[in-house]
Amino acid sequence: MKLSYGDEGTGPAVVLLHGFPLDRTMWDAQVRALSPGYRVIAPDLRGHGRSPAPDGAYTMDQMAEDVVELLDGLEIQGPVVLGGLSMGGYVSLALALNHPERVRALVLTDTRALADSPEAAAAREQTARAVLKAGGLDDVIEGMVARLFARSTFHDRPALVPPIQDVMERTSPMGVAGALRGMALRPDRRPRLKEITCPTLVVVGDCDVISPLDEMKALADAMPGARFQVIRGAGHLSPYESPDAFNSALLEFLKDLPPHD
Fold this sequence. Notes:
By secondary structure, the chain is of the alpha/beta class. 44% of the residues lie in helices and 15% in strands.
């Protein structure tokens, strides 16, 4: 799978994986902040943005292999800092567990380690069928957007919302269905979190209703030496809603990493 991607800056490689059903533009503020000192690679995951949207379920392991293939194509063989939000976090966990030698450090943002409940998996399938039947996300975007942002964002910074809606509207129905079905198939990663021993930053918005603060704290506690950071006043899209606070935490984490050749 040849992914579309952005590649900016020079220095140690940082790979950022977006959430569902978004694209790499959600990381624009991070690319600007990091690219003066790092090589920032932000792909459009399978079925999203400008990347192909094949038929079938996109498992998190398959999407992780897409990222490995991209790194191989860029001739980046050494370990990278890997960050992911929500679905991007699921993919990041899969890659870190399947290819630990490729991950220098991990950044898990507003994501989850546990599997879907049967009810949640069934709801994803129902949404996938509805999107394919309708030929777009128009009927589900409003409900999804309401859960992505902190309530205060709608009142105080409403201009942040339309760009995300626009990206969602552009995501292909096939890509949406593939990602939904793949997320429903993901395993419970909690029993294996202790295997991830690289430096890890776990970040959550304190208003996130999809990846609650307590659950994210438990994820961090299960990983040896993980750092936990709460972004105040942010929901599920903390890097996008509160870029200054997020970038400050990320840059501090990167600065503290052991030197790497």
